[in-house]
Amino acid sequence: xxxxxxxDGVDVPEDGSDRTDHVADLLGRIAAGEQSAFTALYGxxxxxxxxxxxxxxxxxxxxxxxxxxxxxxxxxxxxxxxPKKGQGRSWVLTIAHxxxxxxxxxxxxxxxxxxxxxxxxxxxxxxxxxxQVELKLEGRRVSTALSTLPDPQREAIVLAYYGGYSQSxxxxxxxxxxGTVKTRMRDGLxxxxxxxxxxx
Length: 200
Fold this sequence. Notes:
Layout lengths: L4 E3 L2 E3 L7 E2 H10 L3 H23 L2 H18 L10 H30 L11 H18 L4 H12 L4 H8 L3 H19 L4
Antiparallel strand pairs: 1-2, 2-3
Helix pairs in contact: 1-2, 2-3, 2-4, 2-6, 3-4, 4-5, 5-8, 6-8, 7-8
């Protein structure tokens, strides 16, 4: 038997035999209160989770805060993970994506309040702030558009663009045929273009 490839805590055997989801195992141990399992999970997924959050928020300090919130939620709600419904890594990444989108919405609401109060019209000379605001707004638009996609399409796009996975890795991680992953990404990107008003 060939040695399995390990991608974010999932053994993916090259011979097509069953995958071993180490993240799911760690989540079960975390649910039982095992701190060493939490430490292992953090070491295994924190950089991937942080990358996803940073791509959504485009702000390092906010991303660090959300990373802490994500792993706190993982610690507190690991017992809610249902291995029959999906892989452990996907469950953690879904929490991260939801938390990041929630932070974007919260920031947008705060920004809207500032605009209504007239605080934003201070006549500050250009120093790059406008560019940062534009990047954040674009990130928010993308997050909002992503939330409209069906779960399989969103998962494939999030793993590819926020997680940095290749289509082959996504197929291995999700247990889906490569052709299915390609179709999900094509259809999902097409829907994102429509949602964001971008011409093909």
